Sequence to fold (49 residues):
Amino acid sequence: GGGGWRTGRRHVDFGGLHTNGKAIFVHTLLFFAAFTILTLALHIHIYAG
Fold:
């Protein structure tokens, strides 16, 4: 039974790692989008001014 328990635990850890990677990807994407929008807004202000 020990082998089965270990395999089950490994599967759970892999699932958690996958979820964390997904969350990191989403946060990175949102941060990059916000940074791009702010940069564009700043350039528009400079050109307008």
